[in-house]
Amino acid sequence: MAIDPAESFARPRVAAGALFFDDLRRVMMVVPSYKDYLDIPGGYIEHGETPSQAVAREVEEELGITPSIGRLLVVDWAPNPSEGDKQLFVFDGGVLAREWLDKIVLGPSELTGYDFYAVDTVESITIPRLARRITHGAYAREQGTTAYLENGRPIP
Question: What angle (nearest 5°) sits at the alpha carbon of residue 55, between those of residues 60 and 145?
């Protein structure tokens, strides 16, 4: 019996998120209603969307705001035992000025809250792989680079 070559190709679930910061250089973490850990704003890419379009849509759905989304900070190949292969894009959401913060209206079906945290504390408030992604994303933002990760770890 011949095996269809297309069956051997990876078919990852693809998501995009944004790192938003406050004026103290702390990163925004959101409280999803459907997860047991803090996350960054974002979500899965829909058919026909690009990663940058998806993150803009997700930010509007989750936070009710439409700030400009900046450059790509991180790409992470992150297989998950329960969900299969995943490819995750993290973009620079920049510093959210008071005018944006005052306009945030949480999507009630998705988020129950948000706050800003020092980047060096995210390991204690979220899952390790996401914490590494945030840490590398913040560093890439400061350095003007883009990080490629596998399971949240840089590959030389």
Answer: 135
